[in-house]
């Protein structure tokens, strides 16, 4: 994940969020590339956004939604996951030319809204 794109994703989320959120953009290892916490966002949104991005970056799923559905279908699968993985909506993997380059995690609004913000930011910043 290039820094310029990560910063553009953060800016898009912050500009378009209907309320205070935290956004975390990660590389393919789930490590920080860019992040922000809006004024008024609850402190726990930081770690939640980080966990969502980490999950989407490191799991074999393309989103925390997809991973949650996979885990719900198989208790043995769920028990074997990385304890830092999150099943909350709002974590989306970022792909470029079919290759995973990182992920975005958004936290602070209802999960469906967090997820939509992440998806829109990814789409709007594509090369």
UniProtKB/TrEMBL annotation:
Q: The organism sits in which domain of life? A: Bacteria
Species whose genome carries this gene: Solirubrobacter ginsenosidimutans
- InterPro entries in UniProt: GlcG_carb_metab_protein, PduO/GlcC-like, PduO/GlcC-like_sf
Protein name, per record: Heme-binding protein
